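note to self: dont lose this again. the chain is below, predicted strucutre after it. 411 aa total, dont forget to put it in the shared folder this time
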Amino acid sequence: MIGMSRRLVLLIILVVFIGMLSVATKVQRVKAGEYIIIKVDGSVDPPTAPISSVDNITYVFTDNIYDTIIVVWRDNVVVDGAGYTLQGTGVRDSKGINIGPLGSDNVTIRNMKIENFFFGIYVSESSNNTISGNNITNNSIGIWLCEFSDYTSITGNSLTNNGITVILSSNNTISDNNITSSRVGIMLAWSSNNSIAENHLTNNDNAVLLHNSSNNSIYHNNFVSNTSQVYLGKSPRNVWDNGFEGNYWSNYTGVDSNNDGIGDSHHIIDANNTDNYPLMGMFSSFNTSLSYYVNVISNSVIEDFEYFKSNSTIKMYVSGEEGFGFCRVTIPHVLMNVSSISVIIDDGDTSVVYHNYTLYDNGSHRWIYFAYEHSIHKIDIIREFPLFLVLPLFMIPTLLAVIVYKRKHSI
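---
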């Protein structure tokens, strides 16, 4: 970037990116007055806009909003769509949500549908923001993060026919998003130290595109049937695993001969980028009633995951059409902190083909592995008590029964 201003860099990137897009947009100007502004003083302009707030902190949609740009100038606010839709008309350069560059930081955008803008959400020179739980569809660019918009969390969103672009921004987290049928799923340009984890990238032209971006961590993502799983442009120093688990690649052809859910051979992305621990099944993460997550890597479809606090038991259903299925499960000690864990399939009617219940333990989590013949199965993961506890637990009811019997016969 020597001799080139950051504004010029952004302009060049935007022109190139627009040329890659397959979404047709109308080339027309945004009409004056088609704005809703959350102002620095907390007021909403115009006051008749279908957005309400009782505390000047949380702003909630009260209806769908059409052909209007929402501009956020105020710090430390939440804009909650309450499930309503913000819909544009495909106008060139239009922005559904515009955060910054007037110094608005710590803004949360959540729970809304954003459709048919050029930029669904546009963030510039604004940091510590959260974009979560939104359905972002059919915009030219779904989420645009640029010009030192750092420490932002983009999580739990569904993006279809548009993706996420991060430019000249660092230390951001992009996690647990479903991105499908987009020209570019996730793009990083001149950006470093970002985390891309636990995303589902399916049927995109380019799932992940990196340009002049380094030291980013990319792991626990599912790359499924994308035309190009990864495109790299001058980005040699990125990390594609967390030291013992990487990503799931639908085009990976390696095998797992030691039965641990990790491929025996590396997944080579290019000469300088390698996933050292490619996953043999897709990654899923399940929240429990105690707000601790159980991670599962499996080549089966997993449904109806439940954790029961009363007896520290995990129950789930798995299904698959043919061959053998497996689960590699990561369990926090706080959920099941015992010396022994077992798996029961179909209440004991189906055999566990292979199991390793002490695959790995890092002091806070335990990893287990088990396999089965593919079908529809109920899986119970239970804790086993040590033998020195089992005998007293068995003896207590027996002693109580003897005491009751003696009392009845002593009367």
